[in-house]
Model the fold of this input.
Amino acid sequence: MTACGHKILHFGPGAFFRAFCLPVFQRLNDTHAAALSVSAVSLKTPSIRDRLAAAGWRYHCVEQSEKGIRAQEITCLHEIIFAPDEPERVLALFLNSDLSLVTLTITEKGYCAHPHTGMLAPQHPDIIHDISCPDRPVSAIGFLVAGLRLRWQNGLPGLTILNCDNLSENGKLLQSAVCTLAAAQDSALASWIDESCIFPSSVVDRIVPAVTQEDIDTARKAGIDDPCLVLHEPYHQWVIQDTLMHICPIDLTAAGAELAADIIPCVMMKLRCLNAAHSALAYLGSLSGIGTVAEAVRAPHMREFLDCFWTQELIPSFAGPEHYDPHSYCSALLNRFENPSLAHRTLQIASDGSQKLPQRIIAPLMDNLAADRPVFGLCLVLAAWLHFLASRTETGDVIEISDPLAKPLRAAAHSVDPVKAVLGLSAIIPAALATQQRFIDTFSAAYDGLSDHGVAVVLRAVTQSRAG
Ligand code: CS2
Done:
């Protein structure tokens, strides 16, 4: 790193970070001589550190489109630290005087927050641990608090901490989690963080399918010999709440990020049009044995359902950005979903439903119920999820459930009355929803419809009745 360079500290070096944020930092280095150097922290697994260390921290981002593939080499990654092995090295990075930005892609579950309220969950095992061992934390929130405490004690300025996860008002959520945990240790520290650090919210958008050995072999044949490569679509959108501008010296807009005073309309549109549709295709698709998003939107009954779902339930549920036309936004989404060169697995999207559905499905469902708008499609996605949790596709194949709440969810899905059982899980279905008769009836009807007739018949019936 050069003397004038900036240091970025990142938590969660998964594929999304490597295919979304690092290409932006790389572009700043390549075209603006930014001299950024990134230290990333992996909290749960050493495997990505080990693989990238062997490759000298270099890898390729491979864009896949109908035009073929295009690769960008990433060289701005300086290191990945596996936090459980070297917690003190992670904390020392907070004292680096060149540290200019902290970013996070730790997925919804990494925030140890209640899925509905977004408040830090004090009973989360990682938070219990971090309250009792503040100097040897295990969660990203715990590391942020411990690192910021060091800056505070050493008279260093606050930081810009940028959440890049798919959560509504993700900056506010992060700030609240960090300040809550800090307050549990020292109220003066919590006040310093609140006054000196900024937590801009952001909207991040790029489809990043998990890489398979077959993808690596195909890329090798095309001349990119890299076992650490990541894949992505051409689309890239990063909208950041413009408070970032005040203290962050790195100009992300020079590499394509946009700033907005109010990003809520953009977040709503992304979560409720893209991600809600993704979850619908993930559960309805995997239940009926459809392996990828591109295959799902090629099936006429799925595509017609999606069209109704967007038009009648999702788009009316929010106020989008002024300059966007939600209908053209959704037709552009359909083009992105159709990208045949992108094998985006329905099972990949189906993971962690307990953390994703509250914002994608349950929030618009509650808004539509309150405004007396249609909710059948939203209930159908929840019903498909509940069938999915019973771990079998319609053809009897076993589904592996990956979710931090897998145990209670599987128990609910296998109980005598799965609908009633899931309605009793307040971590997933808020009490204000679980008691609404219109919701209970529609959800039960959707669940029974899937049990009695299967996905294809139910989807055809929905689209026919809506068209008529
Ligand atoms: C997907 C997202 O896995 C999922 O839940 O819906 O990762 C989606 O691909 C991205 O948000 C696209 O920006």
Remarks:
- The pocket of D-mannonic acid is lined by residues 166, 205-207, 274-275, 278, 348-349, 356 (CB under 6 Å).
- The radius of gyration is 22 Å.
- The chain has 21 helices and eleven strands.
